[in-house]
Every structure is written in structure tokens, then in C-alpha cells.
Amino acid sequence: MSLLSDAVAGAFTVLQGIGGECVIYCIFSAGTRESEISLTAVPGVSTYEQDSEMGLERWEARDFLIRSCDLVTGNPKSPYQPRNNDEIRWNGRRYRVTTDGGAPAFDYMDTTNQLMRVHTKHIADC
Fold first, then answer.
1. Structural domain span for residue 91
2. How many domains does the chain have?
């Protein structure tokens, strides 16, 4: 690992220790749950605004910061990349991985691709 990679990993480990929550990441394919991964994620919130005929609309989306290496389904050198319609279960609620306007379901948070911000919306209580 490089010095930058070590620094990113160390900082996120501290963040996980302070604000991390146990979640279950559910991988779906063609509407069927393929597998589940238990991991520690850091929940966050993104607020969006958009002008519409009804005026200014505001809504919140729940984001989860996840270490890429925690989303491993097979080859550990090739972590799973979140897709629309996957789900995250946390705190008695289900969140669907989704984005608006064709944007990616996640963004890498660092240049070393160790951390992801996964975009979700609350869909139901468990």
C-alpha cells in the first residue's frame, strides 16, 4: 500500500469506530436476492432541491459510506460494485440503492477507490 492508501484506510477505520453501524448489503439480480453481506457502514444524508411546477421541492436520500474491500462476493481483488435495486438493511429499515437521472449508484470517495458512497432511498420498514 502507498502512504495515501494507508492514510485513507486509517482515517476511515477511525470514522467507522465513531459513527459506524452494522448493515446488511443485499445483492439483487433480476429481482431475486442473490446474497447478503454483513458489514460496517457510516450512514449519512444528502439533501436535494429541484424547481418544479409546485415550487421548490426538497428531498433527502440516505447515503452509506462503505469500504470497497468489505463488498467482496468472490474474487477479493475485484470488489462488488453497487447496482440499482440492491438493498441495504439498517436500523429496522430497508433502503434501495438508486439514483436519479441515470447517475451511478455509488461514487468513490477517494483517489485510491477504497471508499464508496452508496446512494439509497428508504423503501420500507423491515
1. 3-125
2. 1
pLDDT score for 1: 58
Cell 430497508 belongs to 94
Q: What share of the chain is helix, strand, coil (3-state, %, to 5)?
A: 15, 50, 30
Residues 6+ apart with CB under 8 A from 61: 45, 46, 48, 119, 120, 121
In this prediction, residue 117 carries a pLDDT of 93
How far apart are the C-alpha atoms of 83 and 29, rounded to whole Å?
9
Percent of the chain with pLDDT over 70: 95
Write the CA distances from 65 to 32, 79, 122, integer angstroms: 24, 15, 16
pTM of the model: 0.82
